[in-house]
User: Which sequence fits this backbone?
């Protein structure tokens, strides 16, 4: 990792190149386990869409809420349910024995972003965790969920 002081001195293009090389190195380490795919899980609004796009920008097909050639990035995979509202469930993919990466976003940013979560997602989450969809505010629901 580069310190913040050094980062300020390095042009953005070189920082982006460094980030890409670091990313490829870390992904290769996962692939050394003879795995062609990776499973990225996390709290909803933790950045699974962004992570999928980041992988794609580096030439890896990691689908968002769908299994791509190189894996999947989805918050729905944290559920033990057989049926999930979007994409495959963890039970659908368990037999693949994919390496799992747990993505975490800063709680305040994630909880704030959860305010944009839709009705279907909250209903699904209410079946997974102790939230009261009708009585809890979105902020409280987000805090309980995170």
Assistant:
């Amino acid at each position: 990792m580069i310190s913040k002081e050094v980062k300020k001195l390095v042009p953005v293009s070189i920082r982006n190149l460094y980030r890409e090389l670091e990313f490829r190195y870390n992904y290769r380490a996962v692939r050394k386990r003879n795995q062609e795919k990776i499973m990225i899980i996390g709290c909803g609004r933790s950045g699974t869409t962004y992570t999928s796009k980041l992988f794609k920008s580096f030439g890896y097909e990691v689908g968002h809420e769908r299994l791509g050639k190189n894996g999947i990035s989805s918050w729905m995979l944290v559920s033990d349910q057989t049926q999930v509202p979007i994409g495959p469930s963890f039970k659908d993919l368990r037999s693949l024995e994919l390496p799992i990466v747990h993505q975490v976003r800063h709680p305040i940013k994630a909880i704030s972003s959860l305010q944009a979560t839709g009705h279907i997602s909250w209903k699904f989450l209410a079946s997974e965790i102790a939230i009261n969809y009708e009585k809890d505010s979105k902020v409280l629901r987000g805090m309980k969920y995170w």
